[in-house]
Amino acid sequence: MAIVFESFQRDQAAHGLPLLVAGQPERTVAWHQGEAVSAARFMAHVQAIAAQLPPAATAVNLCEDRYAFLVAFCAIALRGQANLLPSSRAPQAVAEVMAAHPGCYAVGELALQNPPPHYRHLPALSVTPDTDDGCAWLALPSDQVVAIGYTSGSTGVPKGNVKTWGSFHASNAGNLRMLHAAVGKGFHVVATVPPQHMYGMEMSVLLPLLDDVSVHAGRPLFPADVAAALAEVPAPRVLVTTPVHLRALIESGVALPPIAAMVSATAPMPVELAQVAEQRYGAPLLEVFGSTETCVFASRRAAADEPWTLFDGVHLHPQPDGTQVRAPQLDEPMTLADIVTLHDGGRRFRLRGRHADLLEIAGKRASLGDLTRRLLSIPGVKDGVVFQLDDGDALGVQRIAALAVAPAMSEHAILDALRSAVDPVFLPRPLKLVDALPRNETGKLPRAALLALL
Known about the structure:
Layout: H1 2-14, E1 17-18, E2 28-32, E3 35-38, H2 39-50, E4 58-61, H3 66-78, E5 82-85, H4 91-99, E6 105-108, E7 119-121, E8 139-140, E9 145-150, E10 160-164, H5 165-183, E11 188-191, H6 198-210, E12 214-216, H7 223-231, E13 237-241, H8 243-252, E14 261-264, H9 271-281, E15 285-289, E16 298-301, E17 308-310, E18 315-319, E19 322-326, E20 334-336, E21 338-343, E22 348-354, E23 358-361, E24 364-367, H10 368-376, E25 383-392, E26 398-405, H11 411-419, E27 431-433, H12 447-453
Parallel strand pairs: 2-12, 4-5, 4-6, 5-9, 6-7, 11-12, 11-13, 13-14, 14-15, 26-27
Antiparallel strand pairs: 1-8, 2-3, 9-10, 15-16, 16-17, 17-22, 18-19, 19-20, 21-22, 23-24, 25-26
């Protein structure tokens, strides 16, 4: 096994892309258990774990600790295998992904009570293995599939999307240009999103691998934990988060160490929330736009309600059913369901909703996104969503439903407030009050979970 593994490594180095850019042995890749982890120590862990992995084509990376995820991600890739990234670590989601990839195994740093089949419990990463190898020469073929990321299921069944090492290098270049322009080089990331999500992958896994960036190993969710994680890394600090997490952070009143920038994705960022965040924390909020299919390809300052600016080499072509995306990380054009209007010679755009979100009832038009925004603007509504049901009425019109978190309000009061802003044909019925929306780890709302609440 060792001979085969070493031969595979030499072949990678001969004609591939670096696994670790800015690979000076002493540079910090991650902050783990209160300590700085150097590139040399990181690569020693990667090679030790890679030598222990079984032969297979794919492996489900279930690591919750971000440093363990980084090590496992690279070790799996060094074995010529692809990381399977389910939309959730829930047993059913993991089982569905494993069923679609016969012969795969799973890895994680936790001793699970009910592990999935062929689960490999990774050893503790507190001791640095002995190794005579350097870290700069390790590389992967650009066309090697290193990950298969699954969509969140917010619009239906999660779908797998293949990512090669070359495509990750290409997509990461746009993120780096954006962040270098905002905060310079050599920054440190704290992320509230899981590394299995493509946004988390780009902002907390690829950045420390492909630039002089370090990442905190935790995934803090509660405001005090976010503040503590930020305090454990040096300046300049970049907080990678979502609108849901950012709103909770602001409402908590917890003070944060100085941060250089905030990055947000996974859901539209309300202008008002972005403005409060920038004022509270004294840092720009960079909202990024992309998908599991495309990776990030545009950004904007949400607080200024700017149009989205495309990354270099990206071109959009509006279609009847959405928008075609051409980008350096895509081998062929990809059509998304988002409807856009182009500005400034096609280099900037405004988002007008998703094709699937557009409603037409009784000759009138609206969008689910705008209806949700109006629901959330009602004083007393803490969270909410408007969505369309699958079954139509006697005339074939699909009914509109809504879920709202509003502890001090009644359903009638919310509907009365909506009547002043929404045409009666678009009033959601049913509208149901719930204690909390079934948001996943990135704040998205899987459609199946919404329907189950009704």
